[in-house]
Amino acid sequence: MAIVKMNKFSLVGFNNDKKALVDLLEKMGVVELKGFSDTELTEEFESLLKSENDDDNLQQLEQELKRASAAVKIVDEAAQIKKPLFFSRRTVSRDEYDKQLSNVSETKEILDKVLAANDTIGALTSEINKLKSDELKFIPWQNLGFDISVSQTEFSQIAVGTISVKKDFEQLKSKIEGVAGVIETVNTDKTQRYIYAAAHNDDADTVFQALSDADFSQTTFGEYRGTPGDILKSIQKEKDDKYSQIEKLKKELAAFAKQIHTLEMYHDYLTELIAKSNAYDKFAHTESAFLIRGYLPSDAADEVFKKIGERFDVYFETQPCGDDEDHPILLKNNKLVSPFETVTETYSIPSYQDVDPNAVMMPFYFLFFGLMLSDAAYGILLSIGSWILLKKYHPEGTSSKMLKMFCICGVSTVFWGIMFGGWFGDIIPALTGVESIALWFDPIKDPMKLLLWSFGFGIVHMFAGLGVKAYMLIKKGKWLDAVFDIGLWYLLILGIIMLLFGSSIGEGVKKTGLYATVAGVVGLILTQGRAEKKIYMKLFKGVASLYDIVGYMSDVLSYSRLLALGLATGVIASVMNTMGLLGGKSFFGMVLFAVVFIVGHVFNLAVSLLSAYVHTSRLQYVEFFGKFYIGGGKLFAPVKADRKYTRLQR
């Protein structure tokens, strides 16, 4: 149970050393700074100290970081740089890192060029979209043979527009018979008729009144000049020119792939500056000195302050954090347990009042995961596949922990697969005619046996959770609480189990179970209301506490999912095998078998793997953590740049 012990500290130094001190803290990466509230500065130091806050500089750095992030993404996409399945940072030496950033101005020029080219591409794309919109507008008019910008001449007036196809066009034309005017169709579609009308000035009113009666909608073309056919050719040419410009700019962007590492380092350099700027915000200072405070691992305190003392004239005080004192959480477990930290972190970070549950949780997670997947071949594939991904892609963080956890859980899956005879379901019995190859028993043939064992494992799991709770109470010196609130429940639950199943072992066991049950019930009635002052309330609370047995029974039933998911994996695998063997021993049958076998078992492995992860986690979150876990802690966050692309050798 490894929550790292923390020291709190206060340190006073000279302002001239601030920058160098923060640089040192960032390189060490083991010190978290705690800021000062305005109230603390005012009341404790009587306004002598002020918080150092440079929001403008921080905002500029964050804006520049956004620009750098955008530039990296733009070059990646333009150069179509192939990404690995799991991203891992590039390891560089500090000298290489500093050398690349020795001339930030050149990197900024590259950044500006990349963003300018991308902005130009965006502007050209917008212009192309507008041209496409205009093109759609002109396509129906492409057969119009005159300049669309001409609306009148010395003796006539002209209009182009649309009417509904539901209007009687012949009737419309009949209304202008005998006048000096014409109405003709240029094009039609499902809803509209595209027409033009021309009339002598003397008859224009008659023609346009007829159009108005037909709900004529006049079309305008803005600043375009010429016939629609010529305009469409001009638009196409302009589009082609802009597409050519875009392709040229994309090639220029792709050429920046040579500088992608420089841009990535600049991005991480900005991340470093932001981390340091955030650290400065936690300083309080006078005109000549500063004060900082924070946390660091106890086992690193001597080394850290030795390095600080060798370089700077400072005064510091440090002492271990108290057991009841809130402090950031840092977990430290061995290589076997640490991959399972991702399960706990997904739920909640331990609080300072908790113990690290991972060491206790890990064996149960390992056990339950294998029971739910329970196929030796699947376990081998899971472990080998996870190991290959780890070695090939070197993932970091949560991805690394998850793959390591699956690699370990694959071993449990192999074990239970051997015990239950699961190798791609029942493929070996199906091909050889052997009845069963289970080393222990076949759950499909004897599900009740697995159900009882699942309940047994569940009770042990619950008892482990209660045991952690008892440990936490004893650690706080609450021995009686541990006995009354945990020990009596142990006695009652074990008594009930012995009472129900003891006769299969011997009447003495059953009789002992009866005594234990009575003792547990009486003990709970007498102790669970001990916080109450009145006798009748003590008894009422004690009796009411017995209702919790329903909750424990419900928790035990939850472990039936071990049976359900284990059976589901085996049954689906067996169904796939049966389907694959339907074609017999012919060539077609062998092809069918190969296809169904591969596709079916890949599908089953994927679904069963997801189910095993989700439901095993659920058993930890509800049935295990629910017995003792508080959670809600805050992860230790040292002054350290969260570099995205590079990992510095220290």
Structural features, described:
It is a single chain. The chain is of the alpha+beta class and 650 residues long. Among the domains are: 71 residues, Alpha-Beta Plaits (2-Layer Sandwich); 291 residues, no CATH class. Helix content is 60%, strand content 10%. It is built from 22 helices and twelve strands. Strands 1, 2, 3, 9, 10 and 11 form a six-stranded antiparallel β-sheet that branches. α18 crosses α19.
List the helices and strands and how they pair.
Elements: E1 6-14, H1 18-28, E2 32-34, H2 38-45, E3 50-51, H3 55-79, E4 90-92, H4 94-100, H5 104-138, E5 156-164, H6 169-174, E6 181-188, E7 192-200, H7 204-213, E8 217-218, H8 228-255, H9 260-280, E9 284-285, E10 289-297, H10 301-311, E11 315-320, H11 341-347, H12 358-373, H13 376-393, H14 397-420, H15 427-432, H16 447-475, H17 479-501, H18 507-527, H19 535-545, H20 548-558, H21 560-580, H22 587-624, E12 646-648
Parallel strand pairs: 4-12
Antiparallel strand pairs: 1-10, 1-11, 2-10, 3-9, 5-7, 5-8, 6-7, 9-10
SSE-based structural type: alpha+beta
Ranges where pLDDT stays below 50 over 5 or more residues in a row are none
Could you estimate the helical fraction of the residues in percent?
55-70%
* Percentage beta strand: 5-15%
Summarize the structure.
This protein is α+β, with helices and mostly antiparallel strands and 650 residues long. It has helices at 18-28, 38-45, 55-79, 94-100, 104-138, 169-174, 204-213, 228-255, 260-280, 301-311, 341-347, 358-373, 376-393, 397-420, 427-432, 447-475, 479-501, 507-527, 535-545, 548-558, 560-580, 587-624, and strands spanning 6-14, 32-34, 50-51, 90-92, 156-164, 181-188, 192-200, 217-218, 284-285, 289-297, 315-320, 646-648.
